[in-house]
UniProtKB/TrEMBL annotation:
Keyword vocabulary terms for this entry: Membrane, Transmembrane, Transmembrane helix
Protein name: Glycosyltransferase RgtA/B/C/D-like domain-containing protein
Keyword Transferase found: no
Organism from which the protein derives: Segatella hominis
TM region(s), chain numbering: 7-27, 87-110, 130-150, 157-185, 197-218, 239-262, 268-285, 297-314, 320-341
C-alpha cells in the first residue's frame, strides 16, 4: 500500500497512457479530409506530378507543412505507408500536447497535478485527437510548448514554435492572443506585454509568409474560406454536436464551478488567460466548428477550469453531495444509454458503427421505435464532421475506436483483394470515397490524373503501366435516396465494368438494398459491381 501511495501519480499516468494508446491502433485513417492529404502524398511518391503544391490534396493552403513532412518521412521510412506515418505523427504530437497541457496547468498555473490529470482524462479530445491523422494536433502541440517556453523566458525557442505551428495548420493563430494574456498573468505590465506580443506577431507573420511562399501555399485563401463558411451557414447545424462532444455533459457542472471559483477568489488575470482563447475560438468557429478537433486549442485552458471545478467539489462541506457528484462522474464514464433513430435506418442495424465497441446490455425497451438501451460500455455515437465521439461511456472510447478502425480497415482490404488483377472502373458516391479505397491503389503504384474541370461525373483516371481505371464521382445521392442511387447506376451501365467501394455507411445501406433488388452485385461487405 505504501508503494502505491508513493508512486500513485506515476501509476495513474502509466495506466492512462496504456489505456489511451489502444485507440491509436491500427494505424489507419477513418477521416476523409486527412485521407485526401494522404492521397496527395501517395500520388506524388507514385510519380503523379509536383509536390509543391501537390496535384491532389485537401486544403493544402491551410496546412502545407503536413504534406512536405509526410513525404519527407516516407523517403526515410519506406517500410511505412504515408497513412501510417501521418497516424504516428499525430499520435506522438497528441502525447506531447497532452503533456504540455498538464505542465501548463501544473507548472504555469500551479494546480494540483492529480486534478489536472483527471481533468484531461475527463475531456475525451485529449486522446481522441491521437486516433486519426490531423494537422490540428500537430499545430496544437507546438503552440502549448511555445507557451511553456515563454514561462521559462526561452524567447527564441518559443518564437520558433509559434512560427512553425501555423505552417501545420494556419487556424492556430486564432488563439495566439493568449501569448499577451500569459504575459499579463505572469505580472508583466500592459505596455511590455503588448510590445513583446507585437514582436512575436510580426515574426510569425514574416516566417509564415516566407514558409508558405517557399511551399507555394496561400493561407489567405483558407482564412477567406473560413469567413465564407461562416456566412453561408453550411456547417452550423453540426456545431452544437462538436461543442457538446468537446466539453461533454460534465462541462455543464465543471465549467461554471471553475469559472465562478476564479471570480470569487478574484484571480482575474487567470480568468482573462483562460477565457480569451475560448471566446476568440468560439466566435471564429461559430458556424464552422463542426468537428471536436476544432476546439483542441482550448484544451489547456478548459482543463485548468475543470481542474479548479474538481477542487471545488473536493472542498464541499457536505460529504453526501461531494461523493454523490463523484459517483455521478463515475456513472457517466461507465454507464451508457443508446437509442435508435427511425429516420436513419442504417444506424439501427446490429453491424452499424453505432452498435460496435464494448457494450454490455442491462435493459432495453423493444416496444419503442427508439429502442432505448441501457448498459455498461461505449455510449451513443455522435458522429461529427470529422470524428466519431460518444455521448457517454467514454471509459470505453479507445476500445470503441479500435474496433471501428479495425473493422473499416478490413472492409477496405477485402475490397482491394477482391478487385486485385481485375479490369474495372470506379464509381465514387461520396467525398470520402475519392480517397479511401483509392489510397490503397496509390500505395500499389497507381497515379491519379484528376480532371481539373470535371465534366459530368468524370473525376479523373488512375494509371499504372498501360492500365487505366476511370473514376466517376457524384454527390447527388441524398440519405435514403434509393431512387437517386438507381438513377446514377443507370447512367453508368455503359461505362465498362463499374465497381463501388462504399466508405459511408448510409451509402452502403442503399447499395445493399439495390443488391437485394438485383440492380447490382455484392462482392463483399462494402464492395459492389454494377451488373
Amino acid at each position: 500500500m505504501s508503494f502505491f501511495k508513493k508512486y500513485r501519480f506515476q501509476i495513474i499516468c502509466s495506466l492512462f497512457l496504456i489505456w489511451a494508446a489502444v485507440g491509436v491502433w491500427p494505424l489507419s485513417c477513418y477521416e476523409s479530409d486527412s485521407m485526401h492529404i494522404i492521397a496527395g502524398c501517395n500520388n506524388y511518391i507514385a510519380g503523379g506530378g509536383d509536390l509543391l503544391p501537390p496535384n491532389y490534396s485537401y486544403e493544402y493552403n491551410m496546412q502545407p507543412l503536413v504534406t512536405v513532412l509526410v513525404v519527407g518521412l516516407k523517403y526515410l521510412f519506406s517500410f511505412l505507408s504515408c497513412e501510417q506515418i501521418y497516424c504516428l505523427l499525430t499520435a506522438i504530437a497528441a502525447l506531447f500536447f497532452a503533456g504540455g497541457c498538464f505542465f501548463f496547468g501544473n507548472k504555469v498555473i500551479g494546480l494540483n497535478k492529480e486534478y489536472m490529470l483527471l481533468s484531461l482524462i475527463l475531456i475525451p479530445e485529449t486522446y481522441a485527437c491521437a486516433y486519426y491523422p490531423n494537422s490540428t494536433t500537430l499545430a496544437a502541440s507546438l503552440f502549448i510548448w511555445g507557451l511553456l517556453f515563454l514561462k521559462e523566458t526561452r524567447w527564441l525557442l518559443a518564437g520558433l514554435l509559434f512560427c512553425i505551428a501555423p505552417l501545420f495548420r494556419v487556424d492556430v493563430v486564432i488563439v495566439y492572443p493568449t501569448i499577451f494574456a500569459l504575459f499579463i498573468y505572469q505580472g508583466y505590465n500592459w505596455k511590455k506585454a503588448m510590445t513583446i506580443s507585437v514582436i512575436y506577431a510580426l515574426a510569425v507573420i514574416t516566417f509564415v509568409c516566407l514558409g508558405c511562399w517557399l511551399m507555394k501555399a496561400n493561407p489567405i485563401e483558407s482564412l477567406a474560406s473560413y469567413n465564407s463558411m461562416n456566412n453561408n451557414l453550411v456547417f452550423t447545424p453540426e456545431v452544437k454536436f462538436a461543442v457538446f462532444t468537446f466539453y461533454t455533459a460534465l462541462g455543464v457542472l465543471l465549467l461554471p464551478l471553475g469559472v465562478v471559483n476564479i471570480v470569487k477568489t478574484k484571480h482575474y488575470k487567470l480568468l482573462f488567460l483562460c477565457l480569451l482563447p475560448i471566446l476568440l475560438l468560439h466566435y471564429m468557429f461559430r458556424n464552422t466548428g463542426c468537428a471536436t478537433k476544432h476546439y483542441l486549442y482550448l484544451l489547456p485552458f478548459v482543463a485548468v477550469i475543470y481542474s479548479i471545478g474538481l477542487r471545488v467539489i473536493l472542498n464541499l462541506k457536505s460529504n453526501f453531495l461531494k461523493y454523490g457528484i463523484y459517483c455521478g462522474i463515475l456513472f457517466f464514464l461507465i454507464f451508457s444509454i443508446r437509442i435508435d433513430f427511425p429516420d436513419r435506418p442504417w444506424r439501427n442495424e446490429k453491424k452499424s458503427e453505432a452498435h460496435i465497441g464494448p457494450f454490455v446490455l442491462l435493459a432495453e425497451n423493444r416496444n419503442s421505435v427508439y429502442r432505448p438501451q441501457f448498459g455498461i460500455g461505449a455510449g451513443q455515437l455522435i458522429p461529427t464532421e470529422d470524428e466519431f465521439m460518444l455521448a457517454s461511456g467514454n471509459l470505453f472510447y479507445p476500445f470503441y475506436i479500435y474496433s471501428h478502425k479495425q473493422r473499416k480497415e478490413s472492409y477496405r482490404r477485402e475490397a482491394y483483394e477482391l478487385l486485385k488483377g481485375k479490369s474495372y472502373n470506379l464509381l465514387l458516391l461520396s467525398w470520402s470515397e475519392c480517397s479511401w479505397f483509392v489510397n490503397l491503389l496509390m500505395e500499389d503504384g497507381w497515379i491519379m490524373r484528376r480532371n481539373k474541370h470535371q465534366h459530368g461525373d468524370s473525376f479523373g483516371k488512375l494509371i499504372k503501366d498501360h492500365r487505366n481505371i476511370d473514376c466517376y464521382f457524384t454527390l447527388e445521392i441524398e440519405k435514403k435516396d434509393s431512387a437517386g442511387l438507381l438513377r446514377v447506376l443507370s447512367r453508368h451501365r455503359n461505362d465498362g465494368t463499374i465497381c463501388i467501394v462504399a466508405e459511408v455507411e448510409n451509402i452502403n445501406y442503399l447499395l445493399e438494398k439495390a443488391a437485394r433488388q438485383g440492380k447490382i452485385k455484392r462482392l463483399g461487405e462494402r464492395c459492389y459491381e454494377l451488373n
